[in-house]
Design brief:
There is one protein chain. This protein has 168 residues and is of the alpha+beta class. Helix 2 runs antiparallel to helix 3. Strands 1-2-3-5-4 form a 5-stranded antiparallel β-sheet, with helices on one face.
């Protein structure tokens, strides 16, 4: 799906996070509106969910990554002129999944375009902020990746993995 070698940043793997969904201990999902205030909504949802799951150690990192993933979905996967059908499933959805020592944040959007990280040392254009979100995702998470959605839904899921301290 991407070209190897030309970008400095490659996902850990282009596929599902390396965990069995059947063994998940907690899961929560949140449909997000196609508006930029959805980023604030996603942070609020993440804060509440991690509080319920008693995961405080990586809270700041997780919230930053969730903000970047949701912002990328809104900016790149939802063009401003896209018509919205209120009967349809909301176009962006945040999923949080927890295993005993792992947390995965995944954002689904309707675009099949692969995430396009840009090298901040090379990109020197006036839109300097754009394209750096995935470098933040890589820096603050323990791995990330993406995969196309299969089945009745269209689009892709971009996910980030966090290691959690073992209980005990």
């Amino acid at each position: 799906m991407g070209t190897n070698g030309s970008t400095m940043l490659e996902p850990l793997r282009q596929g599902l996070p390396p965990m069995d969904p059947a063994t998940v201990s907690n899961a929560a999902t949140c449909a997000l509106p196609a508006r930029y205030d959805a980023v604030r909504e996603a942070r609020r949802f993440t804060r509440g969910t991690l509080g319920q799951w008693d995961i405080g150690d990586r809270f700041d990192d997780v919230c930053l990554v969730v903000s970047e993933l949701v912002t990328n979905a809104l900016r790149h996967a939802l063009p401003a002129d896209t018509a919205r059908d209120p009967e349809q499933d909301p176009p962006v959805r945040l999923h949080l999944m927890r295993w005993s020592e792992r947390l995965v944040c995944a954002v689904r959007d309707p675009s099949r375009e692969s995430p396009d990280p840009r090298d901040p040392d090379v990109d020197d254009d006036c839109d300097a902020e754009s394209g750096r979100g995935l470098f933040l995702v890589e820096s603050f998470s323990d791995g990330w990746g993406w995969h196309p959605v299969t089945g009745a839904l269209d689009g892709k899921v971009v996910w980030a993995l966090f290691r959690l301290p073992s209980a005990g």
